[in-house]
Amino acid sequence: RKEVEQDPGPFNVPEGATVAFNCTYSNSASQSFFWYRQDCRKEPKLLMSVYSSGNEDGRFTAQLNRASQYISLLIRDSKLSDSATYLCAAHNDYKLSFGAGTTVTVRA
Amino acid sequence: EPEVTQTPSHQVTQMGQEVILRCVPISNHLYFYWYRQILGQKVEFLVSFYNNEISEKSEIFDDQFSVERPDGSNFTLKIRSTKLEDSAMYFCASKNAFATNEKLFFGSGTQLSVL
């Protein structure tokens, strides 16, 4: 079973829309969770950490549900510049494991 | 913001040749990682390294792979005898502390093409 699974999308949304997607993780011992953004052929860049209480950073809201072992990301008021692949990541012990990514395309 | 530096940005090699991918982690960081991403696939963990030892390695990291911190600044990944399927983008990463919520900084990657 994959450590981290994501809906690959693509999510194709108009500017200004809200888009949300989830990620599940299999290792209940995972300690920390993150959302990264990856643009084509570039390195992953940290978007935000995810906390149990849920956290918000501007237009981005992340939630962690430990009981169901999933995390979510919601993007409000989508911008063209939000078009990217969003990687979910779970950290346990000595490594950070990534999902395969969810592709979001924001159209004008 | 401090950066992880990787060289070269592109490497082309013949099958069976040895390659060394180089990384300069952020200067006060203690934990180092290599990841790879085959075109169209996910970012895969290869190995983590701390205190001059491998902390954890994945199934991908077989005997053909090795890592080294030859001096106080460089962190290298060596592939002894490259195969076609080693073609991928290789990312180096580092972080300052063991805490799992500590941010991992990624380099911009080395695109390895094995012909």
Features:
heterodimer, A: 108 residues, mainly beta, six-stranded mixed β-sheet, five-stranded antiparallel β-sheet, globular, B: 115 residues, seven-stranded mixed β-sheet, four-stranded antiparallel β-sheet, 0% helix, 50% strand
Structural shape of chain B? globular
Tell me the Rg of chain B in angstroms: 13 Å
Strand and helix order of chain A: EEEEEEEEEEE
How many helices of chain B?
0
Which class do the helix and strand fractions of chain B yield? mainly beta
User: What amount of the residues of chain B lies in strands?
Assistant: over 45%
Nearest-integer average pLDDT of chain A: 93
The gist of it:
The complex is a heterodimer of chains A (108) and B (115). Chain A is 0% helix and 56% strand.
Question: Helix and strand layout, with pairings?
Answer:
The complex is a heterodimer of chains A (108) and B (115).
Chain A: E1 4-6, E2 11-14, E3 19-25, E4 32-38, E5 45-50, E6 55-57, E7 60-65, E8 70-75, E9 84-92, E10 95-98, E11 102-107
Parallel strand pairs in A: 2-11
Antiparallel strand pairs in A: 1-3, 3-8, 4-5, 4-9, 6-7, 7-8, 9-10, 9-11
Chain B: E1 5-7, E2 10-13, E3 19-24, E4 31-37, E5 43-50, E6 53-57, E7 65-68, E8 75-79, E9 88-95, E10 105-106, E11 110-114
Parallel strand pairs in B: 2-11
Antiparallel strand pairs in B: 1-3, 3-8, 4-5, 4-9, 5-6, 7-8, 9-10, 9-11
